[in-house]
Amino acid sequence: MDNNSAENARKAGLSRKTNETDIALSLAVDGSGVSELETDVPFLNHMLDLFTKHGQFDLSVQAKGDIEIDDHHTVEDIGICLGQALREALGDKKGIKRYANVFIPMDEALAQVVIDISNRPHFEYRAQYPSQQVGSFSTELVHEFLWKFALEARITLHVIVHYGSNTHHMIEAVFKALGRALDEATMIDPRVKGVPSTKGVL
After folding, report:
1. Pairing mode, if any, of strands 34-38 and 21-28?
2. Which of 29, 33, 126, 148 qualifies as a FRET site for 61, CA 20 to 30 Å off?
């Protein structure tokens, strides 16, 4: 397998327009940590920028949504689009490491993200935040984003916030860990021949 060719091809772009949101998103798995983010949810912009930088992806998102109701639809639909783009970008998944387990500290907070790029969508989430809001952002939307991302990417995703006292720090640690775990799990391992599964397919 020509790993360079495989890596260069690992990108995808898509759009999604509903009565609630209008989103255009592109993702390059093998990027340089560059983000171009224009959404109506500033806190999500910040988290996606961290995700992109720590995952060494290139990510572009332009999103408009019905934030006059709340941020829910916009956050959810961006998670859907990002998951779909990742799944498309990885293609047949030949040569990838597949698994990753990453701990990230953010001052007093510690988050762990464990990933299996399995083609079996599953999400486990263990986090209790001191506050229900960070600015105008509802912390329950972190679960909504991550669950829809895992579902559409068809990955097994476990997210555990072990402890923390600052809600912003705790969520920031999650997104940094997600970026680094995905970077590791999607990395091409020259020792892997074909798909890293005894089934022969992912």
Report:
1. unpaired
2. 126
Residues 127, 163: contact at Cβ < 8 Å?
no
Beta-ladder partners of 26: 13, 60
Amino acid, single-letter form, for residue 171? I
pLDDT digits (tens, 9 = 90+) for 152-167: 999 999 999 999 999 9
CB 163 within 8 A of CB 174: no
Judge contact between 110 and 104, C-beta under 8 A. yes
State whether the Cα torsion 169-170-176-177 is positive or negative: positive
Query: What pLDDT score was predicted for residue 197?
Result: 80
Amino acid at 148: K
The pLDDT, as a whole number, for residue 7 is 45
CATH for the 3-186 domain, from 3.40.50.10090, 3.30.365.10, 3.40.50.970, 3.30.230.40: 3.30.230.40
With the C-alpha atoms ordered 107, 112, 117, 121, is the resulting torsion angle positive or negative?
negative
